[in-house]
User: What shape does this take?
Amino acid sequence: MPTQNKSFLKRLLIWRYKHISEKTFIYILSVVVGLLAGLASVTLKNITYFIEASLERGIIFSSNQLYFILPIIGLTLVYLYVKFVHKERLKHAVSSILFSLSKKKGIIDRKQILTQLVAAPLTVGFGGSVGLLGPAVASGAAISSNLGRLFHISAKTRSLLIACASAGAIASIFQSPIAAIIFAVEVFSMDLTMISMLPLLLASISGVLTSYFFLGNEVLFTFNISRAFAVKDTLFYIVLGVGTGVASIYFTKMYFGILQLFKPLKSPKYRLLVGGLAIGIMLYMIPPLYGEGFSFINNLLLGNHIQALGKTPFDAFLDNIWVVIALLFGITIFKAVAMTTTLAAGGAGGIFIPTMVMGSALGNVVAKVINNLGLGFSVSESNFTLIGMAGLIAGVLHAPLTAIFLIAEITGGYGLFVPLMITASISYLITKNTIDYTIYTRELAERGDLLTHNKDKAVLTLMQLDDLIEMNFKKVDQHMTLGEMLHESVAKSTRNIFPVVDSQEALVGIILLDDIREFMFDTTLYKSTKAITFMQKPPEIIFYGQDKMQAIMQKFQDSGAWNLPVVKDGKYLGFVSKSKLLTAYRRELINFTGN
Assistant: This one.
């Protein structure tokens, strides 16, 4: 940053500290973050729509139905951008944000802003079967993180602003401010207190206003409630809840299963080639898998299932409703496959909108089956299409409230609140009791890096081992004599514990001052007795990079020790004391809760 800019920023910061309170400044930043996140979302959508419109006008693709090769081109462009500009492997957008909140104090690399704005439109615009919501949230989060660093705000406030950015991005894309706030609470484990509520609300409103300003009153889905909820349909909504719950489990398992299949392909080029060909084949057989899928959902809501399916190899059989049902069920099955394959092949995108597409197809399938069984039952296919989306969101993301309010807001379907609650809650309960963590959180949870609504676990996750390690302990070589140890280590130390190491700096054991106290003044032992004679095994060892804070706490509790040695890559590093650990825990708890 040029000196002149640094000087201006310094004066601005001084003026802010003098004239604007911390609380007011947070409110101002939340509005700014909401606007910028909304702007990032609008930019993502417009770039993507421009690419899609340009490709649709291309004669070679539209007339010869060669669109199924487009994802390979898009993935190739993303690969080139990542290799020569981004220069590191793309990460899952929301998962990387959650990691930055738990382990990096909310610090996100500024290059994520541009990367999401380039890679996601290239992936989706060229037909990759993923969504734009995750990249929009990631871009907004990177903007808010770097804005927070620019104004020297605390890590806690920076985390709040990242949640505000996610609310602003979601509110802008879906024009659903309430669901945006709830998403931040459910997915980012934010505490919904008055301290966080108002900034989230301001950011959400800012995001919606940004969308209105650039896109007008454009709505994602065209839907009018033609048939209100009837008590006699309750059983069918329960069936839909069970179906979406099972589908959510399938979606999650398929995601991790396909990623596992791609792991042996170490080269990005091979992943791109295999993934691109697989996506192309799926698109040729099932065209609605192309891109995000909003038009597919809209056609189903309007009852145009033929138009929703597009041109397929099975067009001659579409007069048979059971063929239509089979094709729609195929979309339910293969949307998860196409989405994960796109991501595994190197594409950038999110899982939220593919979840909605899968849910809409499944809801429509359930309704069509009920209506065509010949048993005299009749349900609204558009209602089931809508509520199927809520069921999948609730199950896949473990976010039932987000699902209920999002679907209600984006369609104006508040008259369907009861069936939304029935289906979403059943789907969530089935999935939650089967799969502990979501696509966003499983990898982080396995590493112990996941923030949750459990305050104790959240505080332990936020704590950093590096901040607790003390290195002012005098080491003792295992070959030292008692005299050498007393002269070189004990006499120069203020501690009562001494790590014993070998020639490779590996920890051999520890010596306590109490163990040598009675021999310290017996000079006859100085040369004849080795220091290792007084050595004992440490009650526990903390392994740097392996033991998470919860495990470290447990080791102190089980061993009853006040100091435990830390080993990194097989070598002695330092000690952690119980007193410092508990002090750090209390300080982090106060900072986390604000009490």
